[in-house]
Amino acid sequence: MAAPLALLLLAAVTVRAALFRSSLAAFIAERVEVASPLSAWKRVVEGLALLDLGVSPYSGAVFHETPLIIYLFHFLIEYAELVFMITDALTAVALYLAIQDFNKVVFKKQKLLIELDKYAPDVAELIQTPLEMHYIPLKVALFYLMNPYTVMSCVAKSTCAINNTVTAFFILATIKGSAFLSAVFLALATYQSLYPLTLFAPALLYLLQRQFIPVKPRSKSFWLFTLQYAALYLCSLVVIVCLSFFLLNSWDFIPAVYGFILSVPDLTPNVGLFWYFFAEMFEHFSLFFVCVFQINVFFYTVPLAIKLKEHPMFFMFVQIAVISIFKSYPTVGDVALYMAFLPVWSHLYRFLRNVFVLSCILVVCSVLFPVLWHLWIYAGSANSNFYYAITLAFNVGQILLVSDYFYAFLRREYYLTHGLHLTRPDGTEAVLVLK
Amino acid sequence: GAMAAAGLGLVLLLMAGPSPGGGAGCGRDSLREELLLTPLPAGDVAATFQFRTRWDAELQRGTVSHYRLFPKALGRLVSALGVKELHLALTQGFWRTQMWGQPPLQAPAGAELWVWFQPTVTDVDKAWKELSNILSGIFCASLNFIDSTNTVTPTASFKPLGLANGTDHHLLRYAVLPREVVCTENLTPWKKLLPCGSKAGLAVLLKAERLFHSSYHSQAVHIRPICRDASCLAVSWELRQTLTVVFDSFSSGQGKKDWSLFRMFSRTLTDACPLASESKVYVDISPKNKEKELLEVTPAPTSVHEAIVQGEKRTYAVYDLLSPSLFNTSRSLNVQLKWARPQDSSEMPTPILHAQRYVGGYGLQTGQICTLIHNTHPYRAFPVILLETVPWYLRLYVHTLTIITKGKENKPSYIHYQPAQDRRRPHLLEMLIQLPANSITKVTIQFERALLKWTEYPPDPNHGFYVSSSVLSALVPSVIAMKDVDVEQSPLFTSLFPSSDGSSYFVRLYTEPLLVNLPTPDFSMPYNVICLTCTVVAVCYGSFYNLLTRTFHVEEPSRGGLAKRLANIIRKFRGVPPL
Hints:
The complex is a heterodimer of chains A (about 425) and B (about 575).
Chain A: H1 2-21, H2 24-29, H3 41-53, H4 67-76, H5 80-115, H6 130-133, H7 136-145, H8 148-155, H9 160-176, H10 179-193, H11 200-210, H12 220-248, H13 253-263, H14 274-279, H15 286-298, H16 301-307, H17 312-326, H18 332-339, H19 355-379, H20 384-418, E1 432-434
Helix pairs in contact in A: 1-5, 1-7, 5-7, 5-9, 8-18, 9-10, 10-12, 11-17, 17-18, 17-20, 19-20
Chain B: H1 2-9, E1 29-39, E2 45-55, H2 72-81, E3 83-93, H3 97-100, E4 110-117, H4 124-139, E5 151-152, E6 172-177, H5 184-192, H6 208-211, E7 216-227, E8 235-247, H7 249-252, E9 259-260, H8 261-265, E10 276-284, E11 297-298, E12 303-309, E13 312-320, E14 336-337, E15 353-360, E16 366-375, E17 382-390, E18 394-405, E19 408-409, E20 414-418, E21 427-435, E22 439-449, E23 465-467, E24 471-477, H9 491-496, E25 504-510, E26 514-516, H10 526-549, E27 552-554, H11 562-574
Parallel strand pairs in B: 1-10
Antiparallel strand pairs in B: 1-2, 2-8, 3-4, 3-7, 4-6, 5-6, 7-8, 9-14, 10-13, 11-14, 12-13, 15-16, 16-22, 17-21, 17-24, 18-19, 18-22, 20-21, 23-26, 24-25
């Protein structure tokens, strides 16, 4: 499998290099869908220029990157294009290896459940075979590297790509079973953008499952492992934050990065829901709604953990999707990360209900974003409502896509345990409803 | 600092002549009123009034209670708030340097206030806020809109013009309100501060309906401490009220460049202010044509004065209102100038330093501020300090700052940049740029336009937002050596045309204010937006809630609801098998 992956990487690098050299690079770097106030490359350069002028980059309201980015690009600013191509390649390779291992785990679990007779007798067509699972890792890498969203993020040099790399490494470490590395990468991801904090739960569930520790509140080994993992995570986070302190000898970066993410003062339009909502919000209710929107991101973790405790990887997928949709400054680079996982659930295709409509919505919205932006900002013939409407449609499309996959997943699980051909007591064919 | 200290350091020997009035215990005070009329190259006339009150009292100690010529409102400000220097200017219009020459005392469009506080003031921001509110009340101007979002603390520009020992720039505050409109209700309280009001002396010419029918109108108040005498052991306080107005003599004179006091101000001078120790009118009669003939003014002046001003030799006709010979022939003085040859095309002297500023780019996302600074001196290069204050909602990117002179990059020798904080303070950019001789320097910096909350837009959001003028301060080298002038002998000339060491004169120029459009949200939609966004969040919540709390069941056969039974009844009537 190494040869097709190498070929894929080569093709991806060629596409990106070609776009870097073309005139589209400047146009893409300015797009608000790709570069948010948190991840724009222009702001990284501005922060480094402020540092050269002797002014703290966090004294203004332009630079909101973590000190680690300053560390990284202080030396690598000349090779920025190369850095971003390498991060994309690393993400793809990490996802490839992770899904390869995950497939082995899935297959082993499936075999165990078949031997234990947990599956109904007529579900042979629902069981995943190694043959059909063989190309999934490559498809995942392909979905990530060749996704136009990822290519645009790379060409715009958005630091979202770095966040994606750290998350991918975290997933790889979790699937490989190394609690320490998983905690370190999770701490790094949380340090970069705060929201991956919610990925603690799926990672914990996966590691517990891998070590055959049952998830029961009364089990001592459960609490022992949870505390161990939590301690590793928190200590890594504290170490990384303290290292950042020593870069500029001040804690200024905490309000500038995390205060900014949580309080959303900058209302630059993006593909998310926050900007127009807070542009039109009465000042009196601003704090209340900021809290509501931020809680909304963290709020699905516990219910999902309870429902999906046997399926932590799917939980991870849904959680990453929820973060990408509801974070305060989303970009299409975040969307590309959870879309890379869609091939892993390709066996759910027969249960998806609206995938055609939803993919049409996403494609049409992606095309309309730059058109309506141009009409509002440059032509002056539209106003902000047009762009806002497309934002709404795009987010609805994403939400329904994720919930469609969730529905399909749960339905397949039901069929696996209850049989594919359901009959009513009187012998006629039964219909399955969610009640 | 050096310039100001030197300018004051040359206060000479003692004031000549006794000053009228003044109680022995309260310190002597004196008033001098002067008017300078300058015909400008393009046919306009500039009139600069200066009313200077000098008071030998220790105002800063707060022990003074008896005010005579010095207005009590301003004196109380100085003593109560610990003000060391105050400069307030309210301006309408823009001084066109290229058409009118170097300005005597330029001020930016709108309201400008800069203040140095005493070192004894502990909370400068609080004092600044109180000061702007009190001045807002005194001058009926909306100076109460001065807050931290438009106040900056420059480090190199705006050095103290009065007596100062040590300049900790944290005691300086500078703010401009470019949107401020100046009208009659600002002129009236300004006139009330004058000792004679507008009833006697030169102030009778200040009629609002003529003053605001002009191309440029600027009224200012300057308070500063000065040395009482050569030994400089005690401090006197100087209050200068200046008013500069430019009349378009062509449009009011039916196409002729001739002007007179009556035509400009609709009043003539009848006497001097009884409280003034000096009351003079200067008319610039320097030759404007190749024959070097002096211009003719009627009536005949009491004397002729020559001075070297802004690097040029100029001749002034002086009318001393206190001299008894002036009002012998007629009760009123109406200075008139008739051009001998009306078609004289006077050469337009290009000012040595002038600047323009404009916004570049298109669309509502980004843009750039471009400043062009011209140095037209044939062989001398000199440095200029450029101060730019940009509001926080135009996010400047200092890594895009480029300074290009004659096609090559020009690196500034000093840059002080303070980035803005959203809704708290503006950008401050101060640079010391060396201008080579006979060159044009282009300074460009890119910005991004922010989307504000809908309540932060002014009532007419599509009018745009103003960016206040940038300030250029320079010591311009003069072609002719200048004589040092004593501030007591000729206060008008020392304040209008300050020179530091005879070879250069200080110039402070302001560029145009800019008008920038920001993207606007739809102001009619707050309820709709809140509902729609919450609907999208609810879609997610609802879908997830269903999937998390419900489980799959095999559907129980239902016997049909009401609709199905009604449909079956209708089908029975039609003879069709039931559902």
